[in-house]
TrEMBL record:
<dbReference type="InterPro" id="IPR051912">
    <property type="entry name" value="Alkylbase_DNA_Glycosylase/TA"/>
</dbReference>
<keyword id="KW-0234">DNA repair</keyword>
<dbReference type="InterPro" id="IPR003265">
    <property type="entry name" value="HhH-GPD_domain"/>
</dbReference>
<feature type="region of interest" description="Disordered">
    <location>
        <begin position="1"/>
        <end position="29"/>
    </location>
</feature>
<protein>
    <recommendedName>
        <fullName>DNA-3-methyladenine glycosylase II</fullName>
        <ecNumber>3.2.2.21</ecNumber>
    </recommendedName>
</protein>
<dbReference type="InterPro" id="IPR011257">
    <property type="entry name" value="DNA_glycosylase"/>
</dbReference>
<keyword id="KW-0227">DNA damage</keyword>
Length: 300
């Protein structure tokens, strides 16, 4: 299946889709030298593969394969930020202003589905990205579904709720997933169809629905909201690095979560957008600051 979508303004595919990519070795996504993006997803209809590429005229050509092809194509405009509204956003700080200028093609993506981004977000709870992404690769490659169609070698859709519930305890351990995250994922898999309603609710109600699952707190709910429905105000409170990055970008000093939220108050309703612009402006945590040490749960 194939369709073409013309964005209403500048569109930067890497800026828009990069939040969906879990490291350079992500088995559920791939970026070719041509600039084309491949995404393998789990949908209510089954697994599907989506390929997105910009043509010389600025339109996006989308192709899809598999049982999930139709819903994946239908979601393309929202996936690429068609529903994202930055009206009324006024940069108050220099760093945010610089980021807004540097990222004119930035739009907040919306996959329209909770499950895939929820699995990845839970795996990233309280561990380093390196640990989480290794577990993500293990689960996708061993228990997911090979991507339908002429996808790049090794591309595969994440495990569905049913596939995830069938994973044995020792296999979770082999994938480096500790008991707390495993229990959260299994609990979420049991009510996965209900959690998809969070996309319809959006905003704070959507995030609150996700937090009914034991083990899903404000951080995880925000990470899902940012990707599943492009929530412009979802701040990842509790992130190991975010408050420091925001503090340095806005006031030139590290902050805690409470101070970060106070500093972001001028962007109420658009706080996540302000954070993305800080990233586009090149604001980073101190290179030699404290790091969260990696742990290998397979050795425990």
């Amino acid at each position: 299946m194939r369709t073409t979508w013309q964005p209403p303004g500048p569109l930067d595919l890497p800026q828009v889709l990069s939040p969906l990519r879990r490291g350079s070795g992500d088995p559920a996504s791939a970026v070719q030298e041509s600039g084309a993006w491949w995404l393998a997803s789990t949908t209510a209809h089954g697994p599907g593969t989506l390929r997105l590429a910009a043509d010389p005229a600025g339109a996006v050509v989308a192709e899809a394969w598999g049982e999930g092809a139709e819903p994946l194509l239908a979601q393309v405009p929202e996936l690429l930020g068609a529903a994202d509204d930055d009206g009324g956003f006024v940069p108050v700080h220099d760093a945010v202003r610089r980021g807004a200028r540097a990222a004119r093609g930035l739009r907040l993506c919306a996959t329209g589905r909770v499950w895939d981004v929820l699995v990845a977000a839970v795996l990233e709870q309280k561990v380093t990205n390196r640990e989480a992404w290794r577990s993500w690769r293990e689960l996708c490659r061993r228990f997911g579904t090979p991507a339908p169609g002429p996808a790049p070698r090794g591309l595969c859709a994440p495990p569905s709720p049913r596939q995830l519930r069938e994973i044995r305890d020792w296999e979770w351990h082999r994938a480096g997933v500790d008991g707390a995250r495993r229990r959260t994922l299994i609990a979420a898999a049991g009510v996965a169809h209900r959690l998809e309603r969070a996309v319809e609710l959006g905003g704070e109600p959507g995030r609150a629905l996700l937090q009914h699952v034991p083990g899903i707190g404000p951080w995880t709910a925000a990470e899902v909201a940012q990707r599943a429905w492009g929530d412009p105000d979802a701040v990842s409170v509790g992130d190991y690095h975010l408050s420091t990055i925001v503090g340095i970008g806005l006031e030139g000093r590290p902050m805690d979560d409470a101070e970060m939220l106070a500093a972001l108050a001028p962007y109420a309703g658009q706080r996540h957008r302000a954070v993305r612009y800080l990233g586009a402006a090149g604001v980073r945590r101190p290179r030699f600051g404290p790091r969260l040490p990696p742990r290998d749960y397979r050795a425990l």
